[in-house]
Design a protein that fits this description.
- By secondary structure, the chain is α/β, with parallel strands linked by helices.
- The protein is built from 11 helices and 12 strands.
- The longest helix is centred in the middle third of the chain and has 32 residues.
Length: 275
């Protein structure tokens, strides 16, 4: 992350009157960052940056995407006792949040088989790049990062101007490097979007059976190979296999970033010898 970002996070966490850390002796100390539950680790470079900012040496044998279990040591730390404690919460926040996303993503990826699992733009303001990086660590796809990465024609765009006009305008205005994706809610719209040259068709909040039938008709009309097919909306681990069996290419899931649990990770400072 940029130094300005890091210092903003540090300023937020430490504040202006850190009494709790200043009351302990500023002596050399060792500590460990330990995992307390099974999962996929992510956020290692961000946590390392936090520790290094406070002149704490952080050593690890793990990489983002590594599987971990209770008791595994993520970091061994060596530095000033005050510095370790000042870096503790911010580094653990990165690790816990990003590892939770990576863990949930990996669960979806392993169950989805050949179908690509992607996240969405439903992210925490100011933290998007870290959340999308965590999805990648879990084996998922980051989808578009912002509105400039691709042209997505959603239901409200279609309501404002109509499907055909929206696609034609997008194809005319978009760079040759930008794909045009169209969100559809029924078979007829999917067929029309494919005929009009959409690069990606997203079946939004459609039942798996309806998606399967839409794909069958796209194949029948010789349109299937022209487009990437994505499904989104209402897809969970419980019904994921119904959607992967439709012939879809990508499944995008907002829950990867907005509903994942944090991975439980803690820091243990070794007792400091005094006197």
């Amino acid at each position: 992350m940029l130094l300005t970002e890091l210092e903003h996070f540090i300023e937020e966490d430490i504040g202006y009157n850190d009494v709790s850390c200043s009351i302990i002796p500023d002596c050399k100390a060792q500590a460990e960052v330990v995992v307390k539950e099974k999962g996929i680790i992510a956020g290692l470079s961000e946590a390392t940056q936090v520790f290094e900012y406070f002149d704490v040496l952080a050593a690890t044998d793990l990489t983002d995407g590594s599987a971990v279990k209770p008791g595994d040591v993520v970091f061994t730390l060596d530095g000033g006792a005050r510095s370790i404690l000042r870096a503790e919460r911010l580094s653990l926040n990165f690790l816990g949040r990003m590892s939770g996303i990576a863990t949930l993503t990996r669960t979806y990826v392993e169950k989805a088989g050949r179908v690509r699992i992607a996240c969405t733009r439903k992210t925490t303001p100011g933290f998007r790049k870290f959340e999308k990086k965590a999805v990648i660590a879990g084996g998922g796809d980051s989808h578009r990062f912002n509105l400039s990465d691709a042209v997505m024609i959603k239901d409200n765009h279609i309501a404002a101007t109509g499907l055909e006009k929206a696609i034609k305008a997008a194809k005319s205005a978009a760079s040759f490097t930008q794909k045009v994706e169209v969100e559809v809610e029924d078979m007829d719209s999917a067929l029309r979007a494919a005929e009009l040259g959409a690069d990606i068709i997203m079946f939004d909040n459609m039942q798996a059976d309806d998606i399967r039938e839409s794909i069958r008709v796209l194949i029948e009309k010789g349109l299937r190979d022209r487009v990437i097919l994505e499904a989104s909306g209402g897809i969970t681990l419980g019904n994921l296999e119904d959607y992967t069996a439709t012939g879809i290419d990508v499944i995008s899931i907002g829950a990867l970033t907005h509903s994942s649990n944090w991975l439980d990770i803690s820091l243990r400072l070794n007792p400091v010898k005094t006197g």
